[in-house]
Amino acid sequence: MESRINYTIVGIFVVLLLAGLIIFVYWLGKYGYKQEYDYYYVYMVESVAGLSSEASVKYRGVDVGIVEKMKLNPDNSEEVELLLKLRRGTPVKVDTTATLKSFGLTGLAFVELSGGRKDSPLVMRDDTVPVIPASLSAYARFDESLTILAEKLALALDKIDRLLSVQNLQNVDEILVEMKGLTRDVRVKLKGFQDFIDSSIAMEKGVVQAFVKVESAALNVERMAVRLEHDYADPDRNLASLVRQNLESFQQLLYELEVLAGDLQRTTRAIEASPGDLIFKRSRLRPGPGEEGYDKK
After folding, report:
1. Is the pLDDT of residue 10 over 90?
2. Closest Cα partner for 130 from 138, 122, 142?
3. The whole model's pTM is what?
């Protein structure tokens, strides 16, 4: 006997089974596992090109949520307002910052949360949505540094251009010429100063010799006085001849003293008339008594 299958009943059964399966899956997805989220605002001052809604949010490289919304800040057009949707329990602390990063060379961007020391307190939540401070990305910092560097380089080039102007180069050339002449003059003055020192040494030697002669003459006068005393006591000695000899020696001494006084007087007058000759005069002093080349005239 052949079995008869009611296809209508089978069809109804299959439809009911599929409907029940769909209802079960919907219920399981909505009520079976319900993930709770927390929301945070981030205000970016740089371009968010490459970032889009549903972009991932990472905390030290771990996915913790997504970017729920992004728009310009209605209160400040220089900022981009991001609404982050983070899984509840994510340790967002008061020193946590948000930075914009990208996936390699693809240009796709995501938000990276960083910071948050272990001893830092968690962000307190109330009726308002907390704000996570934003920090500049590496690209933004590099761009800012490059801009500052370009400005400083332009300023340095402008100063170098003004420094190397034709007028300044001419001034430098004149300064070098004057320094060369000054060096030559200093060399000549040093030679004159050396001549002055040599002349001073020679004059000092002459003065010393003159004083030696004065001392010798004084000794002669003393000896003459002793002889006079002795001869006066001895009437047999030729007193007149002895006195004549001593007077001649004394006259020679007086003459040399007169010459020395004249030389010193001329030297003093020359110094008073031109004090600079003490350093810059190149002429040699006249030889004094007893020196080579001395002329009594």
Report:
1. no
2. 122
3. 0.45
